[in-house]
């Protein structure tokens, strides 16, 4: 899985998104590991940046996640992106990276080998990924939205229900006013599914 947020707006950003998505789908189909996928997408972002007009810079924050066949854990690389939340038994916990890493497109500024973090994924746990449009949303007083308190409560394990409830709470908090787009993904590990259907997802 990948969630990413490209710098900028307009057609240039849309073209960058399309190139990243195409490169991601190709990379995961042909490359053996998560770091190989990240290296390939870094090359794509470097080419995009080289094609930009002088004085502009393209980069993208991103989270990459690999789920083994048994679904018992996730392997994650975080490149400057908001930490995903793991929701389990009424508690939402940010999965912070073990070390900070520069976003895609800025690897030439000194990024070394990116760390791959392993996190246990319990039965009935839900992983929520999002872009910074969620956590940079503000109420009428200018206070940023924090999804952790709302998600730290008994919730159904259905990822669609969780996202619908989160979006409703965000809308209430901001009174329907968002300064930036927000993308969200939720994935739940089912307790009794076969190996090839271990998770249920919603975007």
Descriptive account of the structure:
The chain is α+β, with helices and mostly antiparallel strands. It has a single domain (about 1-200), classed as Phosphatase 2c, domain 1. About 30% of the residues lie in helices and about 25% in strands. Helix 1 (about 10-30) runs antiparallel to helix 2. The longest helix is centred in the first third of the chain and has 21 residues, at about 10-30. The N and C termini lie close together (about 10 Å). The model is unreliable at about 195-200 (pLDDT under 50).
Write the layout of secondary structure elements.
Elements: E1 2-6, H1 10-30, H2 34-51, E2 60-66, E3 73-79, E4 85-88, E5 91-94, E6 117-120, E7 126-130, H3 132-135, H4 147-151, H5 159-174, E8 184-189, E9 199-202
Antiparallel strand pairs: 1-2, 2-3, 3-6, 4-5, 4-7, 7-8, 8-9
Quick structural overview:
The chain has helices spanning 10-30, 34-51, 132-135, 147-151, 159-174, and strands spanning 2-6, 60-66, 73-79, 85-88, 91-94, 117-120, 126-130, 184-189, 199-202.
